[in-house]
Amino acid sequence: MRSTLLLAAVEGCSVISCLPGKKTTTGRGALCFNRRYSFYGRLPLCSTFPLPVLFALHRKWISDAYNHWDELRKTEHSARAGVCQLSGYIFSSRDPAIVRNHYIEKVLPMYRAATEQELRICPGEWKYGSFFTTILTECRLYQPWATERFLDNGGRIVTVALNSLQELHGKYDVVVNCTGLGAKRLCNDHKLVPIRGQVIKVRANWVKTAFYADFDTYIIPGFQGVTLGGCRNFDSYNTEVSRHDSAAIRERCESLLPSLKGAPVVRESVGLRPHRDPVRVEIELLPTSNGNLRVVHNYGHGGYGVTTAPGTAKYAVKLVRETLSASSKL
């Protein structure tokens, strides 16, 4: 099978891990930002994963993804891959819906309402809360590890510049498009927009529990420090660190967990989440002057790329097999 994968962020690495065989050629497309962390139990999934009609499919993507991360967590590769188990709380003083996530409540080994005593763990007038146990994946570790395994299995990475997917016609049997925000230009997809995010990494090794609260406030202990966040700036292409966002993030996180005051900063990061309503995981036959190019798209995950990547990758590979099977019968 001649296949190519236009790789961006963790979605591409996940598709690589699901593709059969060892000789998959990988063309690197436009790179996109990926969140440094993902953990199951944050805000309910946004409109990138709409509830109507496709609810069952999206639930399966999330279930498949969680099972993938959990199996990796149990192997000897977990530390190098940046995967571990993590527990945490979600608190809100505004709305009980904020602390619920109907997609994952039946997937996680623990997801329950916080007790009255737990609602007083952090300063604030918290009315609603949940406690959960989940999986944390740190992409600064996972992506290099996954890429190394791909190369060790005989894969090749080829760096190319593309103006359109049609340029690949005749070279490959099927193209898997995981170019993230790059798909906006490559596919002329006006539904794809960036959602800007900013985080601060601090040294605070005494923090062992994750916390999430109103106004996209989160504190996530990981392998290389504690991540403080965040923000969601819709349709913003600004990749510079904003001192105003930094100040707001520190104020909210230190109010939630006062012991963070004075924690030294390791780095600050800004990135653009590729948001599409809905996420695009589907087959497309692109017309060219010499016939159709078979493409399987897998992009537009917004801030939930790591959370759902193995699940949508598994589904994308299923679509690859379907399109190849259909073409062999023609």
Structural write-up:
This protein is an alpha/beta fold and 330 residues long. It has one domain (5-14, 51-326): D-Amino Acid Oxidase, subunit A, domain 2 (D-Amino Acid Oxidase, Chain A, domain 2). Helix content is 27%, strand content 33%. The protein contains seven helices and 15 strands. It has a 15-stranded mixed beta sheet that branches. α1 links the parallel β1 and β2. The protein is globular, with a radius of gyration of 20 Å. The protein starts with a strand and ends with a helix.
Write a concise keyword list for the protein shown above.
15-stranded mixed β-sheet; 7 helices; single chain; globular; 33% strand; D-Amino Acid Oxidase, Chain A, domain 2; 330 residues; alpha/beta
